[in-house]
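Here is the promised in-class demo. Please do not try to memorize the tokens; focus on the logic of going from shape to residues.
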């Protein structure tokens, strides 16, 4: 009765389309090879019968391990767990499968191992293509962010360069007029030195952002937000926008990618800057941190009147933008969402919000970043 049930089981799974089933004896020689195995691995039943498992579909780097695992199962009863495996077909191409195993006649002298393989090659290909696409988009998004950073640096440099030029011109004029004294020289050169240090620091800040590595690290959330705003200082001043970093939680530590979070903050704040109309007075952006249990929430809201309800559900979509095509790539918020969701294992949401600020009612967009705050 047992053999009848086993044969019926083998016959049943052998007829399932797209599921490759192979049987092997104690020496790993093929004793069963269904039609799906022929299609998946390229060997006909006649070609496969009697051949060793490791000589047919096992890559070189896996052969020793596969042989050892099979012997352990036959001799010690330690079964081989189901797993995703990179096997090879007749042409030497990699076939990604999810492989499960069952041993029949396990306690006899002639155990038979059957492998049930589901082809994952197409899913793996799609996954790899998606990962590659996201890498390209992340690079493009960072390049767009760098463009905004360069504009920011240019604005930050205008006033210091003007100060240096004015100071140097003053020294030259006084020298030409014969009225230059040592105190003026000392004060003027001190001012120039301080200003050049400021210019040098803006370059260093930009370099640190560009060279940030994709390595998880523990970082202080409050300091990272302050640094992000420092990088945006020029653009914010240029557009006469005040930023309020409103929180008493300055000791929260996050395990993740600080440089990617900086990029997300820059993208969100830059979108707020773009959203302001000329008729908005007293422009401001409020950034708040709050913690609930093991999660931390970063809320970024402005008083730019909010996002059109007809498009608010689309702003994280790829290439969606309300700006002119030659001005915006449309990947900033899409990539911000990807960086938070995939890189930081958090979430990014947006809604329109009405709130009071200094007893005045305002309306604007409110972005919420949710991250895990525990670093254990």
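The designed amino acids, position by position:
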């Amino acid at each position: 009765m047992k053999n009848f049930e086993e044969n019926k089981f083998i016959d049943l799974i052998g007829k399932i389309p797209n599921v490759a089933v192979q049987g092997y004896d104690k020496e790993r020689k093929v004793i069963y090879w269904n039609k799906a195995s022929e299609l998946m691995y390229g060997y006909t039943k006649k070609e496969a019968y009697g051949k060793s498992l490791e000589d047919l579909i096992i890559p070189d780097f896996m052969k020793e391990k596969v042989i050892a695992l099979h012997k352990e199962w036959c001799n010690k009863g330690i079964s081989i767990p189901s797993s995703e495996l990179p096997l090879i077909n007749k042409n030497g191409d990699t076939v990604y499968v999810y492989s499960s195993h069952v041993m029949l006649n396990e306690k006899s002298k002639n155990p038979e191992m059957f492998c049930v393989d589901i082809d994952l090659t197409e899913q793996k290909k799609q996954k790899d293509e998606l990962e590659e696409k996201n890498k390209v988009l992340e690079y493009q998004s960072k390049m767009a962010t760098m463009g905004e950073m360069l504009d920011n640096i240019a604005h930050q440099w205008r006033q210091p360069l003007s100060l240096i030029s004015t100071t140097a011109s003053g020294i030259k004029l006084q020298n030409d007029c014969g009225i230059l004294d040592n105190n003026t020289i000392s004060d003027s050169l001190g001012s120039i030195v301080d200003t050049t240090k400021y210019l040098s620091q803006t370059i260093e800040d930009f370099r640190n952002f560009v060279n940030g590595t994709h390595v998880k690290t523990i970082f202080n959330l409050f300091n990272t937000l302050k640094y992000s705003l420092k990088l945006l200082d020029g653009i914010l001043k240029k557009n006469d926008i005040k930023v309020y970093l409103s929180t008493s939680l300055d000791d929260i530590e996050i395990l993740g990618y600080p440089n990617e979070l900086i990029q997300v903050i820059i993208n969100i704040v830059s979108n707020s800057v773009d959203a302001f109309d000329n008729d908005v007075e007293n422009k401001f952006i409020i950034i708040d941190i709050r913690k609930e249990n093991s999660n931390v929430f970063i809320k970024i809201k402005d008083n730019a009147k909010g996002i059109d309800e007809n498009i608010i559900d689309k702003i994280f979509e790829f290439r969606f933008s309300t700006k002119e095509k030659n001005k915006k790539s449309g990947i900033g918020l899409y990539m911000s969402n990807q960086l938070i969701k995939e890189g930081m294992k958090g979430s990014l949401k947006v809604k329109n919000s009405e709130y009071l600020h200094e007893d005045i009612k305002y309306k604007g967009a409110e972005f919420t970043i949710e991250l895990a705050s525990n670093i254990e």
